[in-house]
Structure formats: structure tokens, C-alpha cells
Amino acid sequence: MNTLSWLNGEAFTAFGQHILWSDMIGNTIGLAALALGWRRSIWTWPAQFLSGVILVGAYASAHLSGGVGKQLLVIGVAVWGWRQWQRGRRRDHDGTIGSIAVRFATWRERGLLLGGTAVGTLAVGGLFTAVPELSWNPWPDAYIFIGTLAAMVAQARGLVEFWFAWLLVDLVGVPLAFSSGLAFSGFVYVIYLALVLWGMRDWWLRSRAGAMTLEGAAA
Q: What DSSP character marks residue 104?
């Protein structure tokens, strides 16, 4: 048995749901990546990269082309996000390199994110509808595909809105994962929801504190 066959094999059964190794391992690493993102650690990107590599197999086994495409995007954006955060980390008072600074998006950035997400979802959903072999559930699949891309781009730019994007993805991702036979993904999405809410609060407060510091310096 090769590694790919083992990863797409059944790990165990819980509540009538068959849990795949790839689904379980990939999403566990994904949870760690989200927690690292909450802490503004640059290691969130290697973790997201590894999670994406493993979850490609899980989504392929469930015949969710949108999920496969999403994970390929995760892999690509993780490389870009690593480079962005390498350049964007601020220096602390003692000269050492600290964590990434976070901020709220400008209205222009919000408009670009929302507009790009809407257009992207329509385009990908239309493709999945026209070619049914690509996805058995085209519109939710397309929504998660593009929503994940929007969230990761916002994260790479240190925008607080990245958490709102993940929240909107989770609202569709939970039922889709369960209905696709990826039960562990469904359970993990529920945990994601809690982490997203905590992370949103933390980044929100940090962005406000940063803005007050800048205002004080200007005064």
C-alpha cells in the first residue's frame, strides 16, 4: 500500500461517519495553522501549505473538484503569504523582528475583496455547472473555493477582515463537508468557527490599539 492509498483509507468510524486519514490529518494541521495565524506567527504559512498538500487527496477522493482547487490555491497562497509576512513583520523596540502588524482594510480594499469574491464565485460556479464532472455541488463548492482565496489574501495582507471571510466560508463549509462524506472536515469546521471568533476579537483589539498608538504619535 502506497502513502496516497493509506491517506485516503479509513482511519475509524464515528457516529456512522467514515473518517479518512487524509481528512483527519490535513484538517488537524489546518487547525494548527489557524491558531498560528491568530498568534500572528509566520509559521501559519508552512502549516497551511502542508495541510493543503494532504487535503488535496481527501477532496479528490470525495470528487469535489472545487475542494481540490481550493487546496491547490491554499498551497500557492501559502507560499505568497510567507513572503508577504517575511517582508511585513515589524521590529520591536529592542530591534528584534516581531510579529506581523494587523489593521482594518480600507473601503477600497473591502470593495475589491467583495467584488472579486462575487465575480469569482459566479465564474467558478458557472464552470462547475457547465461541466458537472468537476463538482456534484457546484455553487457551494465554488463559494468555498473563492471564499478561501479571499480569506487567505486578506490574511497575507494582515487585514482583520480575513476573519470575517473565514466565518462566511465556515457557514457553508460545515454542511457541505458532512454531506460530502468528509465528516472530520465538518467537525473541524465547527472548531474553526470558535477559533475564528476568538481570533477576530484578538486582531480587532490589536488593530485598534495600533491605530491609537499612531494617533498618539501624530499628536
A: P
pLDDT at 159 over 80: yes
27 Cβ neighbours under 8 A, 6+ residues apart: 51, 55, 184, 185, 188
Is 204 within 8 Å of 164 (Cβ atoms)? no
d(CA 94, CA 211): 21
Cell matching residue 23: 481528512
∠ CA 61-65-67 to the nearest 5 degrees?
A: 80
Q: ∠ CA 75-78-3 to the nearest 5 degrees?
A: 35
Q: pLDDT confidence of 216, banded at 50, 70, 90?
A: very low
Give pLDDT, residue 123: 95
Q: Give the number of other CB atoms < 10 A from CB of residue 92.
A: 10
3-state secondary structure of 93: coil
Element (H, E) at 190: helix 183-218
- Are 193 and 170 a contacting pair, CB within 8 Å? yes
List, for residues 21-37, the tens digit of each pLDDT value.
Answer: 887 888 889 888 888 88
Measured CA to CA in angstroms, residue 181 lies from 32, 38, 63, 186 at distances of 23, 29, 10, 9
Cell numbers representing residue 179 in the block: 454531506
**Ramachandran category for residue 63: left, alpha or beta (phi over 0 → left; psi -120 to 50 → alpha):** left
State the cell numbers at 98.
Answer: 516581531
